[in-house]
Design goal:
The protein is of the alpha/beta class. Helix content is 37%, strand content 23%. The protein is globular and about 70 Å long. The two termini are 46 Å apart. The model has no long low-confidence stretch (mean pLDDT 88).
């Protein structure tokens, strides 16, 4: 049996939505990027991969209210799969959902042949496989049940059914959620070429140890956009990753999907699964530094493989260096346009001094170490921002008090 697994399609992604696509001028170019990626993957599966089943592991859409144009596109791709006799199982993801409904509800009501929408945890069988399907459910979205609680209930219920009815079948799990211990994001530090990773250390999330309790030979997950193998003790677990680069934090990531095949040779890390790259990802270029560093970075830009890139220029330096940067920004942007014809280019400024740089480094270290900012550090940063913008001590006190109240309300 051969199973293709795709996740985090985010078809109506609309970052830089003011920049419309040249070929499809009613849609933002980034929306079209994700649609092109999905079309490529569907075509490749129909013409080359020819799987026995395709599973979409959540986040078909970027929001729960996609436009009719994007919905129609997705439905056409499902029709293509149906015509090719490739059944598809679609898990609801956290981006597909709101407290009232989810974006796949209309599709579910149609009951299309070969198309199954999964909105609550369920067990099913395909050939000699038993599939444990765990979407992001309305119960979790509404706060009626914690996701980890629902996960363990599902594990226990599934084990009973499998023991009674499916002992001879291979267990495969498909889910959409964040995992404690997985990489949220990877990025390059300004002062180092080494990759740094931001790890999820959320105490209430499903953990790597929890995944082991599944006792599944293969675990495929959607939610985190970086393709990664998870270090569990039992079986092979992975995030398939998103199908396109979402933003600058993913500018160096390879995108695509995975295919399980009974006939594949066993790989040490991925078992009988192979990652298939989407080769036409939107190039993203992140230029960062002071004036001289930015000029050197532009000189080193390649001339092949990056045309049509999204370019971010981030000035980082002192107030004195900012003057030089402001004077040369127009010329810098002109050089970039002439060299690589970017589809979109924008600039940011980060004026620093030694004290600010030290504080920023401390925040970065705390994020890397803990995976999140604690309350004390968040409020400290907010208080410093208020003090910088507001001179009146009494006004500062009022604004800080409001900030504390807002933070507490959002954390409840």
């Amino acid at each position: 049996m051969k199973i293709s697994v795709v996740a985090d399609c985010h078809l109506n992604r609309a970052l830089y939505k003011g920049v419309l696509d040249k070929k499809y001028p009613t849609l933002p170019f980034r929306t079209v990027d994700f649609m092109k990626a999905f079309y490529f993957i569907i075509t490749q599966n129909i013409e080359k991969i020819k799987p026995d089943l395709m599973v979409i592991a959540g986040d078909v859409y970027d929001t729960y209210d996609p436009s009719n144009e994007v919905r129609a596109f997705f439905n056409r791709q499902l029709k293509r799969l149906s015509d090719a006799n490739i059944p598809v199982i679609i898990l609801v993801g956290n981006h597909d959902i709101c407290r009232k409904h989810h974006a796949l509800s209309p599709l579910k009501t149609l009951e299309l042949d070969g198309c199954t929408v999964v909105e609550e945890p369920m067990l099913t069988t395909v050939g000699d496989k038993v599939l444990m399907l765990f979407p992001y459910s309305l119960k979790v979205e509404r706060g009626e049940k914690e996701i980890r609680e629902q996960f363990h209930e599902f594990v226990e219920e599934s084990k009973k059914v499998i023991e009674e009815e499916h002992q001879d079948k291979q267990k495969m799990f498909f889910g959409h959620f964040g995992v404690k211990g997985a990489v949220l994001k990877s990025y390059s530090s300004k002062d180092s070429n080494k990759q740094k990773s931001l790890i999820n250390r959320g105490g209430d999330d499903i953990s790597l140890a929890d995944l082991d309790t599944l006792e599944a030979e293969y675990i495929f997950l959607g939610d985190y956009h970086q393709h990664q193998i998870l270090p569990i003790n039992n079986g092979v677990a992975m995030y398939t990753g998103s199908i396109e680069r979402t933003d600058m934090s993913e500018c160096d990531q390879t995108k695509g999907y995975v295919v399980y095949d009974d006939d594949n040779h066993v790989d040490q890390h991925m078992g009988k699964v192979r990652f298939i790259e989407y080769p036409k990802c939107r190039s993203m270029i992140d230029l960062r530094g002071n004036s001289q560093e930015l000029l050197k970075a532009v000189e080193k830009l390649p001339t092949k493989g990056v045309k049509g890139a999204v370019v971010r220029i981030t000035f980082v330096g002192t107030h004195k260096e900012l003057t030089d940067y402001s004077a040369m920004l127009d010329d810098l942007q002109k050089q970039i346009r002439n060299k690589i014809l970017p589809v979109h280019m924008y600039s940011e400024q980060k004026v620093t001094d030694d004290a600010e740089e030290k504080a920023a480094s401390q925040v970065e270290e705390d994020l890397i170490d803990k995976g999140h900012l604690n309350e004390e550090l968040v409020l400290k940063v907010v208080e410093e921002m208020i003090a910088e913008k507001e001179d009146d001590p009494e006004e500062q006190k009022v604004l800080i008090s409001i900030a504390h109240d807002i933070y507490k309300e959002t954390m409840e």
